[in-house]
Amino acid sequence: LQISGYLNLLANTIDNFTHGLAVAASFLVSRKVGFLTTVAILLHEIPHEVGDFAILLRAGFDRWSAAKMQLSTALGGILGACFAICAQSPKSAGETVAWILPFTSGGFLYIALVNVVPDLLEEKNPWNSLQQILLLCTGITVMVLLSLT
């Protein structure tokens, strides 16, 4: 079981690296975009990190080791942010943002389409399906409203 924990840590480090890329590139666009991206990623990361912690516990890590390992994966986010900042052009941040934001957005869309949508399609209870669709529409509405302000 230990190998599944280490694979999860590797995946989490890569995920955090892309989050760092997204946050830094978003702040290169503007403070508002950076702040909104940071809040969105934090809201995503809270349940994600709790789930990863549980995976590490099941893989045989004790609580202290699992917490230290989870914290060490956060360094991936810092490295991603540093990479985005160091990759920016001396002329403008536009060149950096032109490839980083589509790259990270594509990764998030891929995860949603590969992991979430198949589960939604397998749902047998119509009420649960309706709730999930309503929550999805609510999320889209919130993003649109935040982009207008």
UniProtKB/TrEMBL annotation:
Localization (cell): Membrane
Single GO term (MF): zinc ion transmembrane transporter activity
Keyword Repeat belongs to the record: no
GO CC field: membrane
Domain of life: Eukaryota
Keywords linked to the UniProt accession: Ion transport, Membrane, Transmembrane, Transmembrane helix, Transport, Zinc, Zinc transport
Catalyzed reactions per annotation: Zn(2+)(in) = Zn(2+)(out)
Membrane topology of the entry: Multi-pass membrane protein
Stored InterPro entries: ZIP
UniProt record similarity statement: Belongs to the ZIP transporter (TC 2.A.5) family.
Name this protein carries in UniProt: Zinc transporter ZIP13
Organism in which the protein naturally occurs: Nycticryphes semicollaris
Gene this protein is translated from: Slc39a13
